[in-house]
Amino acid sequence: MKVLSLFGSAVVAASALLTLIPSTAAHMAMSNPPGQAGPWTKNQSNQVHAFIGFKGKKFPCGGYPKGPVTKYRAGQTINVRFWVFGVPSWTKFPPKGGLNTARHGGGACEFSLSYDGGKSWKVIGQYTRTCPDVYYEWPVLIPKNVPSCNDSNKCLFAWSWTAYATNQYYHHCANIQITGDPKGRLPELDMTVVDVPGRNVRQNVHARGDGKGGKSAGPNRDERARSTNGFYAYGGKAGKKGIDLGLVRS
Fold first, then answer.
1. Which helix (H) or strand (E) element contains residue 30?
2. Are 157 and 69 in contact (CB under 8 A)?
3. Is residue 25 a contact partner of residue 31, using CB atoms and an 8 Å limit?
4. Torsion angle, CA of 235/239/243/248, rounded to 10 degrees?
5. What is the average pLDDT across 64-72?
6. In terms of domain of life, where is this protein from (predicted)?
7. pLDDT per position as a tens digit, 29-45
8. How confident is the model at residue 4 (pLDDT cuts 50, 70, 90)?
9. Which of 116, 134, 164, 196 has the fewest CB atoms within 10 Å around its CB?
10. Is 121 exposed, middle or buried (0-12, 13-18, 19+ CB in 10 A)?
11. Which is it for strands 156-163 and 205-207: parallel, antiparallel or unpaired?
């Protein structure tokens, strides 16, 4: 996992931000691909949307059982979608307006692959400030040169989110299979991990966001291009650095 580099200092303390942005129990979960423990599984958890550490929720993936398996091929784009309680159907998009999505003012999202059951993670997409938001799709390209991964118990796609208005880290996973390049390589960029209790990672960290509690402006055009044009592939320009996630100490 990547060692976090912190940029500058927080302009406003997280405790003050929480008074400005709704902080209900809504939060979010990943519905496309369908993540573990969601309402589309046999093992639904009412804490699937919660942050890592909430009532002992474990890292990685929340510690949930295997969920639905989605099959992909290298070079395919995943149009990631999010879900909150109050959305009557996770298959219909976009959801109705007026939802309390508890975006916590946005933050920094990463989308990553694991081929070893969550022991290691490699980033294939990054969005900052406006992510996440249930009203938009967040496209992420599976690099054309990744190897195949056939064991759906070990092959995982994850969304991770460092929130803006509170020092919370979210991590939700989906079981997948990938048909890839026989000579392929995984990307070099390690997934960022912060604010996970009991682990040797940076604590009291949040991300610069858009400060909005409701609907955002959606994916940034440049970040969307990077997340869909091979920027994160092995040999791509992201390398081991990626983009500035805007992470700061509270």
1. strand 29-32
2. no
3. no
4. 160
5. 98
6. Eukaryota
7. 999 999 999 999 999 99
8. very low
9. 116
10. buried
11. unpaired
Distance CA(210)–CA(223), nearest Å, equals 15
Distance (Å, whole) CA 168 – CA 162: 6
**In angstroms, rounded to a whole number, what is the distance separating the alpha carbons of residues 82 and 138?**
9
Span 203-209, average pLDDT: 96
CA 161 remoteness from chain centre:
5
Q: Which tokens go with 133? A: 């938001």
Strands 107-114 and 29-32 turn out to be: unpaired
pLDDT score recorded for residue 232 = 98
Query: Comparing C-alpha atoms, which of 204, 180, 215 is closest to residue 82?
Result: 215
Domains of the chain listed by start with CATH number = 1-250 (2.70.50.70)
Residue by residue, DSSP assigns 92-110 as SSSPPS------TT-EEEE
